[in-house]
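Please, structure for the following, as tokens.
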Amino acid sequence: MNRSNLFHPLSRKRRKPVLGAVIASSLLASSPGDIHAAEGDDERATPASRPYAQFDRYDLKGTTTRLPPASETIIRDYGGFRSALARHGFGLHLMSLNSAFYDVHSRQRTPEQRYQGQQFTGTSNNQFYLTYDLGGSGNDQRQFVLGAANNSVNWKGVGPARKITMTRFSYYQSFLDRRIEMALGYLPNSLEFVGTFVGGSVTGGSLGVNSVIPYAIGMSRAPMGTPALNLTFNFKDGWYNKLGLQRSISPYGVDGEDKENHYGVKWSVPDAKLLLIEEFGLRRAASTSHPYVWVRGGIMYNWSRFARFDEPGRRSENHLFYLLGDWQVTQSGPRPNNGWHVGGTINLAPEDRNPYARYYELRLYKIGPFQSRPMDTFTLSIGHNQFSRDLHRLRGGATETYSTSASVTYMWRVSPGAYVNAGLTYTDHPALAQRLDSALNATVGLNLFF
């Protein structure tokens, strides 16, 4: 007998879903095709990807932002590497996200760097995810995930430098033909909520100039996972509701979290309380019969105590309202998602306790800008940050009150698993804490998936 078959997920005894029928009745009206309509990933639907479809079961499950499938990696199944892991129920995902920024316009220098690119700024985020398939019943699945990360930066303003940290340690299970999904453990919720990546995939790069407000409110992100429970309810025609209960990152920001929890393994840190995330949305993948659409909105409420700017010495709970939408307006090219897309973002947070209080963004992007480049992406975006007026008054007018950016970027798929991003971003008032010349940041990124 082949001993390895004892560990293969298909050889395990199937178990029935364990969730009761209390909430099942509202979900059973939809068909499996309706539930999974948002998963029509183009990377998984081409002739070149079919030999690797067997590895899809070992992908990271339950996230709104997808990691690339095995067919869209550098090593694919070189030497039978992934096949050997899959025989024992394992899947492996490695990625390296590298970026460089430099302001080619302003020559104004300060004793300390005030914004990304004022001096040459480089980041390298390297993540590792090991999945283990615990089997399931029908389309349902149970999965264990271990994730670790290395984060290198040359300026602390873009995030903490960590040689090694745990970023994910979680259990996933779906119920009722994936109408309900649960993730429990240490999670980076930047992959689970809001969605700031083109087409909902890390390979597409981030949308526009991006808002930092969800993270300032306390949402976790790699390389900082925190204890969390996420529940997703999938309804008919792509509608969904997602609830998250997360231990907030430190109310003193990423520096506070890094100081108290450098290796990412602590259950709690001082003054960090519960963060509630509630998101409702509609998501449908592009197909030959309809274009791509993803509209989502939600609220975050953090019971941690944040310092008040209008009443120094007082601390209050925090919250955020957010609304994002992305629509495909044309279909042209060999893939259903090829064509022009438009989108927008609104983030609203109280300015009496948040330095970044409002964020508005408009974006226009084309996936497959040329017939011969169906996986490239061209993006134009405008973003506006409204800074806290209460902080402005507290600092005697020494801070800026807004920042506006315009960005143009091109993402070039060099080969499976290798992507180059290049662009220019013009920013008026690039720093919150000090009035500086406008910036013109040249950016280059290299994203690798193995």
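The CA atoms of residues 67 and 202 lie 6 Å apart. The longest strand covers residues 293-307.
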